[in-house]
Amino acid sequence: MQKRNTSSRLFIFLILLFQFIRCAVIIDSDYNVSSDDDPVTEASPRKRNCTRQPAIIDKLLNGTGYNKFRIPNDDGVHVQVEFWVQAITSINEITNDFEMDIYINEMWLDPALKFDHLNPCKQNLSVSHQVLERLWTPNSCFINSKFAEIHDSPFKNVFLMIYPNGTVWVNYRVNVKGPCDLSLELFPLDIQECHLIYESFNYNNQEVRMRWNEKSPEPVSVTNKIRLPDFELIKIEPTRVSAPYPAGMWDELHVKLVFERRYIWYFMQAYLPTYLTIFISWISFSLGTKAMPARTMLGVNALLAMIFQFGNIMRNLPRVSYVKAIDVWMLVSMTFIFLSLLELAIVGYKTKNEEGAKKKCPHKKLIDNFEASPAGLCRYEKRFMLPVERRSARWGGIMRFQIFQDFWNWSPEKIDRVSAILFPACFAIFNIVYWSYYYNKKLEKAAAMKLNEDRL
């Protein structure tokens, strides 16, 4: 009986010993494993007795007393920043902002995360974004953004990599809406600027020094060609500024994006129809004095079309207290159409008076052709008034009255003939002055921004 109990105890002891050895092997396999499962290449030779990634993370964060609230270096941390612009989705003149998707790259050195002494199986550790919550970060953000969030489809778009020397590389894919300093005086020939400011929210430059990536020739680059319906991205300018705050000096990374408006759409939708409307209003000069109803309808419709077109353009623009280039164009164009209606009113008035005079004095022409006719039968003869006007020509007021009197004596047909030449000539002069002035203003603004004029 005693021998049987001894055998049972020995058997149980052997089973427990076997289980203990098995657990020890499993635990040790997390730290020291063969690299049979890893691909073997010439660049990365087969490693044996290396430490796996979960064990390295566990040792770094749990086994060394890592504190994420402690700054990695007492002398300050250098954070290298780089932006990759993925897309610019919109620029809104009403709200003065723009929206874009951007990759934010940050790199800094954290000596507490150094693991090259652990014989890692992988040269670099690519870990989940959940690990980032357990690490020290510079807590950087866009301080002037209206809205910013990290994409989370289908999961949070954060990439985290740790290098053997303790360098941390974090990449965020962010949707951000930033402000634009829109100035519409030259609209639609305008050039606009939008700004973003990136800095550490919690640490001044004695603790965190924000820098653009010195190894990259373009710290702010565009991954895909930016295609916007209204604007073209012509310049990206990154700068660094030290800004004073009550708690010290902060390093700010500024990004200025310069956009040039594509004015072809506005030329097709605003300028070209305006040209056609004005040209149509000039047709009334050739219809003669007998087609007054048709001329009136043509002029009124042209004016209404111009007003409707102007309102349609202004509906998509913000209410500003200054005059835009498109305002000058539309107002002057409406003035030309209004003057054509005014000319029509003068012609109609004179035509009506002439017809009334003919009814009152049907033999006027016959009497006027007779040399001995008295001047006062129907009206004063012009020859009788000329000496008086010549004697009083030295007075400027009377001279101006004489010019007006001469114009008023024009026949309706002559007024139409002069208007058919004068209106197009004045409109051509206005076009030369308008386009020369605003295009030179655009070149001056481009020179102030140090833009390449060949791209404008």
Describe the structure.
Residues 23-43 and 370-393 have low confidence and may be disordered. The chain is an alpha+beta fold and 456 residues long. The longest helix is centred in the C-terminal third of the chain and has 37 residues, at 412-448. β6 and β7 form a beta hairpin. The protein is built from ten helices and twelve strands. The N and C termini lie far apart (105 Å). The chain has two domains: 53-262, Neurotransmitter-gated ion-channel ligand-binding domain (Acetylcholine Binding Protein, Chain: A, Distorted Sandwich); 265-360 and 410-455, Neurotransmitter-gated ion-channel transmembrane domain (Methane Monooxygenase Hydroxylase, Chain G, domain 1), CATH 1.20.58. The radius of gyration is 42 Å and the shape is rod-shaped. α4 (264-281) packs parallel to α6 (325-360). Strands 1, 2, 3, 4, 5, 6, 7, 8, 9, 10, 11 and 12 form a twelve-stranded mixed β-sheet that branches. Helices cover 41% and strands 23% of the residues.
